[in-house]
Each structure stands twice: as C-alpha cells, then as structure tokens.
Specification:
- It is a single chain.
- The protein has helices at residues 2-166, 168-203, 211-238, 250-264; strands at residues 285-287, 303-310, 323-329, 332-337, 342-346, 352-356, 368-373, 379-383, 388-392, 398-403, 410-416, 419-424, 429-434, 440-444, 451-456, 461-466, 471-476, 481-485, 496-498, 504-511, 514-520, 526-535, 538-544, 550-555, 565-572.
- With 574 residues, it is an alpha+beta fold.
- Among the domains are: 32-166; 167-241.
- The protein has a five-stranded antiparallel sheet, with no helix packed on it. Strands 3-4-5-6 form a four-stranded antiparallel sheet. It has a four-stranded antiparallel sheet with strand order 7-8-9-10, with no helix packed on it.
- The longest helix has 165 residues, at 2-166.
- It is elongated.
- Residues 202-217, 237-297 and 558-562 have low confidence and may be disordered.
C-alpha cells in the first residue's frame, strides 16, 4: 500500500515536472507572442498612421477631383455655347454664301445672255456693214450711170439741134415731140388724179374706184402708153434709129415686183404693214391697223403683232427652217426649228439665248416636231427624225430616250403627272407612256379620225383636236372619252393650248384663205374668234398669260406661197 502510494507520488512529481516544463515553454512562447504582438501593433499603428495620411491625401484628391469635375462641367458648358455660336455663325455664313451663289448665278446668266445678245448684235452689225458697203457700191454705180445718162442726154440734145437745123421735117418732128410730151404730161396728171381719188376712197373704207373712174384710169394708162410709144418712135427717128437705154434695169424691176408683193401681202417682210402705213422690218412690233385683215378689237382687246424669222429659211440665230411645235417656259419662247435640226430658246425680248442641238448623237438627223416643258424645266421632245421621245433635264442634257415603234409617228406631245401623252399621225391614235420606265401604258384610236394636237389641263383632263371631225375631244388621264366640243366656227382644228384660266385657243382652217384662232371658254362654249382671215395654215400655238396674254403661232403658207419660215407673236396691247 505504501509502495503503491509512493509510486503514485513519484508519478505525480514526474507529471508536475512535465507540466512545469510545458508551462515554462508556454511562457516562453507567450513572451515571443507578446513580442510579436507588440511588433505587429507597432506595424498596425504605423499602418493606421499611413492609412490616416492616405485618407487625408485621398480626401484632398477627392476634393481636387470634384473641383476638376466642376471645371470640366463649366468647360463643357462653355464648349456648348461656343458650338452653338459657331453653328449659328456657320448657318449665317452658309445662307450668305447661298445668296451670294444665287446672285452670282443670276449675274453670270445675265452676263452670258448679254454676251449672246452682243454676239448676235455684232453679227447683225457686220451684216449691216456689208449692206452699207453694197449700197455704197450701188450708189457709186448709179452715179456713174447717171453721169453716162447725162452725157448721153447731152449728145441727144446736140443731135436734136443738128436735126432741127437740117430740114423742115425735123421741125415737124420736134412739134410732134412737143405735142406728145404735152399729151403725156396731161395723161400723167389724170393718172395722178385717179390715184388720189383711189387713196381718198380707201381712207373712207368705200369702194376704191367707181366704174367711170376705172374706165378713166384705164384710158389714161392707154394714152400714157401711146404717148410713150410716140416719144420712143420720135427719139429713134431723131437719133438715127438707136434705142434709148431702159430707165429700169431687170434687177430693179425684180426688186420692184418683190416690194409690191411684200407691200400687198399680209404677213410679208414689212411686218404686216397696213395700207398707207410705213413698212417695218421683220421682228418689229406694230399696232394692228383698221385696214389690215387682223384689224379691230378681238375678244374686247386690241393686239399687237411681232414677226420672228423671215420669208426665206436661214441658219443664223433667230432664223428658221420650217418651224413647228413651240412652248412657253416662263417668259422664254421655245421653238422647234425642225429642218435646221435644232431648238431655239428666245428671251422675253425675243432674242435667242440658247440653241439645243444633238449633232452626231443619233443614227439620223435630229428633227424636233413638238416640245413640252414641265414647270421644273424638264424638256420632252418629239424627234420624228429618229422616231423617239427625248427627255432632257434642266441643263438640256439627255437623261432618257423612249424609242417608238415603226407604226407610230408623234405629231404632238404633252406631260401630266408621271405620264407622257402623244398623238400619233400614222395610227390615228392617242398614246400614254410611263415616264419612269418608258413603257406604253395605253393606246386609243376608235373615236379619232385625224388627231392633231394634245394638251393637258389643270383638272387632269386631256384635250385632243380632231382635224377631220372638226371637234375637240375631252378625255381623262386613263384615256376614257368624256365629252366633245364643237361649233360652227371650229373648222379643221389643229394646234391648241390652254391659258391659266382654262380658256382654250385653237388654230382653225375653214379654207386656204380663211384661217384664224378660235377661243373657247373652259366649258367648251365659244368665246370669240381671233384674227379671222389673217392667218394661213396656223399649225401650232402656245399661249402665255402670266402678265399679259401672248400668243405665238407657227404655220405654213399655201402651196402658192411656199416660202414662209416665220413665227407670229400676238400680244394684248396695254
């Protein structure tokens, strides 16, 4: 029992020692840990100190950032204000540039127009200089001939004196010569009196000569011829049988004949001068006088006439060769100069400012027959030389060509919305094309006999003149017949046009010498007849009533007067 207790105590002592060793070891480890904790505390303190410093520094940076953001926001506002101010100034500058560009375009256009006018004026001046030179030469020649005639008269007087001194027969011949001269003077006075009576009769609008006066005039002419014959015989006897040189050369006689024809024919190169009126040059403007076939007030208005071109064809600007279709584009008059293979554009003063040609661009020569112009300035041209429709932009550049089949020949053309409408002289029909693809949309012919011209109206209707039926057909845009206008004055209608009020102007032809322009109201009722009997075969017409009503007409004379290449422009007198 004692041994057992002693063993147990020994074990306990051993455990105590072990525990002491462990306690000592733990105390050592605690001391090490405390040392480490102190170091870590110092490090943590230092770190906290650094964190505090960093926090203070970060706070400064945050404040700086806020200040920077405020500055940036102010800069953005300033930038936006500057941008708005810049945009405003740019807009103003662009507007000023646009205005300046437009003004420049107008100035350039006026300058170019003035240059063209000066070129034409220079050509006319050159022509006038040539005419003056020719006239000067003619005057010199006439002065030479006058001198020769004076010398010849002197010789004849000497021969007469010799003949008077030769024999009594010469005295008898001289007496006969004096009597013949007295008789001739008497007859000349009678003839002058008859002419004066005729002039007085014309001024009173009476019959120019009564029957007795006609007989008196005829007798006077016969006596004058008889006295002239006697004088010629006496001169030949006195001068030894030599003939006196004719007072008028053949060329002068031809010129005189041409002058008489010009003075007596309406629409001649005298500018349609009236009886007793002073002749005016081609292209001049005059009031229509009471003795002229175009006299009086028509439709309650008085008109003036201006003739463009000349009797004979020409290739210079302002001259024409068989002009056909024509149209107004604003104040500009566009004319198809068909056989000169061009289109001439004239300004409001009727001066050529532009010529459209397409030389060498097609297989055959360009022959414009009619033209239609949209408000935005696109040209639609019927070219019968190549059997096609040409579409040009505002700069007169080709943008599209619509070829025609062989069984179609366009006579007239108009445009409405997105479609082209043409009359066909071969198929006696009206045809509708789509502008976008150029395809034929519709074609009608059953109610036409000889369709000539087609014109679109403001209410989307089509007017077609039917020459052989003497009517104006009314159709809708789908080529459905709606109505027909006809009256006793609507004979063989050809060209037609519509003014801004819907009034219809139609070229008519009752006979070779009875043609004119019929004006219908928008409902097709007759309004008045313009220029009856004063036009010959008017074929195409264009009406412009932007300020005052102006009518331009092309046409041809009868076969007996084939030379006529003129355009007549009638305007309401203001």
């Amino acid at each position: 029992m004692d041994l057992e207790q002693t063993g147990r105590q020994g074990d306990r002592l051993t455990q105590v020692q072990v525990l002491k060793g462990q306690l000592h070891k733990a105390m050592s480890e605690k001391s090490q840990l405390e040392t480490q904790h102190r170091e870590q505390f110092r490090e943590l303190y230092q770190a906290n100190k650094e964190v505090k410093q960093l926090g203070e520094h970060l706070g400064k940076e945050v404040e700086d950032k806020k200040k920077a953001e405020k500055q940036l926001e102010q800069v953005k506002k300033d930038k936006e204000l500057l941008q708005n101010e810049f945009d405003s100034k740019v807009k103003v500058l662009k507007s000023q540039l646009h205005d300046a560009t437009q003004e420049k375009s107008v100035v350039v256009e006026r300058y170019q127009e003035r240059i063209k006018e000066l070129e034409i004026a220079n050509k006319l001046a050159a022509g006038k200089v040539s005419e003056i030179k020719l006239l000067t030469q003619e005057i010199d020649e006439l002065e030479t001939k006058l001198q020769e005639s004076s010398d010849l008269i002197s010789k004849r007087e000497e021969q007469l004196l010799d003949a008077q001194n030769r024999a009594s027969e010469s005295n008898t011949l001289k007496d006969e010569l004096d009597r013949a001269r007295e008789e001739k003077d008497k007859m000349q006075k009678e003839l002058d009196s008859a002419k004066e009576q005729k002039r007085d009769a014309l001024e009173k609008d009476d019959d120019p000569l009564v029957e007795g006066e006609k007989t008196e005039k005829t007798d006077a002419k016969m006596k004058e011829k008889k006295s002239e014959g006697m004088l010629s015989k006496l001169r030949r006897r006195i001068t030894g049988g030599k003939k006196k040189s004719p007072e008028t050369s053949p060329s002068d006689q031809a010129a005189s004949t041409k002058a008489e024809l010009s003075g007596s024919t309406a629409g001649s190169e005298t500018g349609m001068s009236t009886s007793g009126a002073e002749p005016k040059p081609i292209g001049g403007t005059e009031y229509i006088g009471r003795n002229n076939p175009l006299s009086g007030k028509h439709g309650g208005q008085k008109w003036t006439l201006q003739i463009l071109g000349s009797w004979d064809s020409g290739t210079e600007p302002g001259q024409f060769n068989a002009p056909r279709g024509l149209a107004w584009h604003g104040y500009q008059l566009v004319i198809c100069d068909t056989e000169n293979h061009r289109i001439q554009i004239l300004n409001k003063n009727k001066v050529v400012i532009e010529i459209i040609r397409f030389d060498g661009q097609f297989d055959k020569e360009f022959r414009p027959w009619d033209v239609a112009i949209t408000p935005d300035g696109h040209f639609f041209i019927a070219d019968i030389g190549n059997n096609q429709i040409i579409i040009c932009d505002q700069n007169k550049k080709i943008i599209q060509i619509i070829p025609q089949s062989a069984d179609i020949e366009v006579r007239s053309i108009t445009v409405m919305a997105a479609f082209i409408f043409v009359t066909d002289s071969k198929g006696k029909s009206l045809i509708k094309y789509n502008i976008k693809d150029g395809k034929l949309v519709a074609r009608v012919s059953d109610q036409f006999s000889n369709p000539h011209s087609v014109m679109a109206t403001s209410n989307n209707h089509l007017l077609v003149s039917d020459t052989d039926k003497h009517v104006i057909h009314v159709l809708d845009s789908d080529l459905n017949f709606l109505n027909s206008y006809h009256n006793d004055r609507l004979k063989s209608p050809q060209g037609l046009d519509v003014d801004s009020h819907g009034n219809i102007y139609i070229c008519t032809k009752e006979s070779e010498w009875s043609c004119g322009i019929v004006k219908l109201r928008s409902d097709g009722q007759l309004d008045c007849v313009l220029f009856e009997g004063g036009l010959y075969y008017p074929e195409f017409i264009a009406v412009n009533d932007d300020i005052t009503t102006t009518i331009a007409v092309t046409g041809r004379w009868p076969l007996s007067y084939p030379s006529n290449h003129q355009i007549r422009v009638f305007s309401v007198s203001t």
